[in-house]
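Supplementary notes for students who missed Thursday's class. We covered one full example, reproduced here. Read the sequence, then the structure, then the short commentary at the end.
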Amino acid sequence: MRPPRYASVILDVDSTLCGVEGVDWLAARRDDATAAQSASFTALAMAGEIPLESIYAERLDRIRPDAEDLGALAEAYREAIATGAAEAVRSLRTAGVTIHLVSGGLRQAILPLSRDLGFLETEVHAVPVILDSSGHYIDFDRASPLWRAAGKCEVVTALGLPEPRLAVGDGISDAALRKVTEGFAVFTGFVRRQSVLALAQHECGSFTDLLDLVLP
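Structure (token representation):
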């Protein structure tokens, strides 16, 4: 049996593993104006028209997600998982591929689905939300690199995953991983951004496409 084409896969979550943009989903629980502003900011940041760090704190400071919100988002992620994603993750692991989730999303909301899929907590990289003892929002962990546009590159470089490595995602921060990996596949199963497509070596419209790309 021939080895996989990539030894490691770095997988985005929002609009890649799941058909949810987490912060936008939370914004929609507030009011129409908050939802519209968040969606507009997200679209601009994911297309690379504004830096992520210029809007990340503003969105969360307005939404102020509490423990109940994060739990509800966790269920939304579970319900919106991409078709075939769970099976693809199992197949990649069986083939010996190392898989890490690297996301600018909120860690507490992502962890339940990641556990369902068999990820260790050390294989999940996202932005922790800081809550008080009653579950009310205080802040997000500003020490995390992942709320900044270049953060994914910092995290992946520090991980030292087996090479060759393939980054998979829908946004400009995923495309930036071309600098520190051996391949970038844009995931277009949920959203298609021409600015990101233009930077990709591969396009995956589904997790079946991803398996075909990684496994010979």
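Commentary. The chain is about 40% helix and 15% strand. The mean pLDDT is 95. If anything here is unclear, bring it to office hours.
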